[in-house]
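Per your request, structure below.
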């Protein structure tokens, strides 16, 4: 604790000195700096509270962990899953209140403060040990590059959320839940029926502070993931492998963009890698009781992955499959099946709240999947909606021979990366070509340890399922840490066996890729003006209004100051409801647009206004620019000729109380 206390004191003194310098130079400290300080404190509090809770749970299972990186990795990851589940239960029972959420975060910190101090001291010792080792020039450069990438990621996390899916549901749904004080089925929003463990964590940050904290939680998840990768490599290979793997992971543009956003992929990757780590422990243990404990813990992490995103179900299947197959291979089929059942039961226990919620609300635990077999109820979902949604899932499907597409994959990643995810999916596209170059070098390794062999099998199965189902690279990101480990093994093995010339060639190739990665990240930052709100050069409100295409934020600010607190808003032509200060319904493009049926069935504009008022709406917000874009892709304004005329008449007759950025606010007079 003494070393960590000195570090904390040094940091506090540095901050105080910086404040004095600003005052001495008579320079006004931008208000955003104070906001960033509060956001950092809240995010750190949530992460440390999760670590305190998770450390208690890990100890309770009897799962052995080493002090330092490994302990904080396992504790923090399981704690995030537990904290998100507790918050979800609050939401299901109508207890989403700020005091409850604050108490949920504060209680583990207060009761387990000594354990938190021990974990932080262990991490501090591990960092100091690895940074003070006798590194070569290349090793030092790798550490510097990793630190620079992490610093860029952390800075970008302070930018107000602009990512499309975040504004549609990752943040919009938690905001709606907080406004109502409960988790409920948001009308016309398909995503409200998805598992939302990560969104529950985001909701805590939003309740205690603001919508920047979720991005900081993603950044914290990347730090935990780095600790897990280093600990895994040192336990199943060597320290060099861990250093190279973390370098590959942190410098990938996909990591920088996803870990600085409020998307779920980095936290999903954290749960997935923890499940892999635990199942490797189960496979390599010899004592039956410890194997069973490890299998149960692997199941808990896999259940967290499934509760974060439906694609986490692949992790559940792979984990149980590995346990069963290794049992059969060892001639202990019964034991293998038992371990697999225990893991599956643990995963099911974690996922159960989300499955039960869906069964009660829509009659289908995995809606919208299997809707044609299990059925559904109480949701605006038609055959046309289903076709539209599942067509979106297969947007990047293979159009030729699958084997030929697989062989062409490395070249396609370099030549046309957006063919594996454009638009909102482009965040996960960067960094994969380097893995394609380095992973095949693993054939030069003089054998793999059992742990690395299991990791390789884990990654291969995930990759094949991803490639067969829907090749969107963002969905494969949870396997990036595994790919980075295998790539690290490959490039180090090739360098050791090939001598100085091969090592130099590998360094040159990697250096060129890192340069491209850096240029890519800086180019995106420059185009988006990422550093302007972080450095206080542009206010966050201005940034949201100017940088977001067809931004609804000016309209949101008008509603905040002029609309009654009980106002209810219908958002037309836009799905991005996050930021609306009043109750808001933003129909998804994958649900029937209720405005279309209301206009088609209305006699005239006055009747349409009466229908809207009867539905409880006080304002209609029309985003014409975004609406045109969505109509081109999803035909959201498919009015009948009569309905189109009624809608035109409505817009002409209703008073427009505000208009900016092609967004107009209409007030429905009582």
């Amino acid at each position: 604790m003494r070393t960590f206390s000195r570090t904390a004191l040094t940091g506090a003194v540095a901050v105080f000195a910086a404040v004095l310098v600003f005052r001495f130079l008579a320079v006004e400290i931008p208000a955003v700096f104070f906001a960033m300080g509060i956001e950092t404190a809240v995010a750190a509090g949530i992460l440390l509270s999760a670590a305190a809770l998770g450390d208690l749970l890990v100890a309770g299972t009897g799962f052995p962990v080493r002090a330092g990186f490994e302990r904080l990795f396992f504790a923090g990851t399981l704690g995030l899953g537990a904290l998100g589940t507790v918050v979800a239960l609050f939401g299901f029972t109508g207890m989403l209140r700020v005091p409850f959420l604050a108490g949920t975060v504060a209680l583990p910190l207060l009761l387990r403060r000594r354990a938190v101090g021990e974990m932080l001291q262990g991490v501090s010792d591990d960092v100091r040990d690895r940074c003070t080792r006798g590194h070569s020039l290349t090793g030092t450069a790798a550490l510097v590059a990793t630190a620079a990438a992490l610093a860029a990621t952390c800075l970008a996390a302070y930018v107000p959320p602009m990512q499309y899916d975040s504004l549609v549901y990752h943040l919009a749904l938690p905001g709606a839940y907080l406004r109502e004080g409960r988790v409920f089925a948001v009308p016309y929003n398909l995503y409200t029926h998805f598992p939302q463990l990560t969104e529950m964590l985001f909701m805590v940050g939003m309740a205690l502070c603001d919508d920047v904290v979720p991005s900081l939680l993603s950044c914290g998840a990347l730090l935990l993931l780095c600790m897990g990768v280093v600990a895994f490599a040192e336990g199943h290979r060597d320290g060099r492998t861990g250093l190279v793997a973390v370098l590959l992971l942190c410098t990938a543009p996909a990591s920088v963009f996803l870990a600085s956003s409020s998307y779920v992929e980095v936290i999903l990757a954290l749960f997935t890698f923890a499940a892999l780590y635990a199942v490797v422990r189960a496979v390599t243990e010899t004592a039956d009781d410890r194997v069973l404990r490890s299998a149960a813990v692997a199941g808990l992490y896999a259940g967290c992955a499934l509760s974060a995103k439906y694609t986490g179900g692949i992790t559940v299947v792979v984990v149980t499959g590995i346990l069963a197959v290794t049992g059969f291979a060892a001639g202990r089929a019964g034991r293998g099946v038992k371990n697999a059942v225990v893991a599956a039961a643990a995963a099911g226990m974690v996922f159960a709240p989300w499955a039960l919620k869906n069964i009660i609300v829509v009659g289908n635990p995995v809606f919208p999947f299997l809707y044609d077999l299990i059925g559904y109820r109480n949701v605006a979902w038609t055959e046309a909606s289903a076709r539209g949604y599942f067509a979106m899932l297969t947007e990047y499907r293979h159009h030729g021979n699958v084997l030929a597409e697989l062989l062409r994959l490395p070249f396609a990643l370099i030549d046309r990366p957006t063919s594996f995810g454009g638009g909102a999916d482009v965040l996960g596209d960067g960094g994969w070509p380097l893995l394609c170059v380095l992973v095949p070098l693993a054939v030069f390794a003089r054998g793999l340890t059992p742990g690395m062999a299991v990791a390789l099998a884990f990654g291969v199965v995930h990759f094949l399922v991803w490639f067969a189902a829907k090749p969107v690279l963002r969905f494969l990101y949870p396997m990036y840490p595994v790919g980075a480990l295998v790539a690290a093994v490959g490039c180090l093995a090739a360098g050791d066996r090939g001598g100085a010339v091969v090592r130099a060639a590998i360094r040159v190739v990697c250096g060129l890729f890192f340069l491209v990665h850096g240029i890519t990240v800086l180019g995106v930052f420059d185009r988006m003006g990422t550093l302007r709100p972080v450095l206080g050069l542009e206010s966050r409100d201005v940034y949201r209004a100017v940088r977001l295409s067809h931004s609804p934020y000016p309209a949101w600010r008008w509603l905040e100051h002029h609309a009654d607190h009980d106002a209810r808003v219908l958002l037309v032509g836009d799905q991005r409801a996050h930021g609306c200060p009043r109750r808001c319904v933003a129909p998804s493009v994958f649900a029937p647009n209720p405005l279309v049926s209301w206009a088609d069935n209305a006699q005239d504009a006055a009747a349409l206004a009466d229908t809207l008022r009867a539905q409880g709406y006080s304002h209609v917000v029309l985003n014409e620019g975004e609406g045109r874009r969505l109509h081109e892709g999803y035909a959201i304004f498919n009015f009948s000729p009569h309905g189109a005329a009624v809608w035109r008449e409505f817009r002409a007759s209703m008073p427009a109380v505000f208009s900016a950025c092609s967004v107009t606010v209409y007030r429905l007079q009582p």
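The first helix runs from residue 2 to 24.

Regards,
D.
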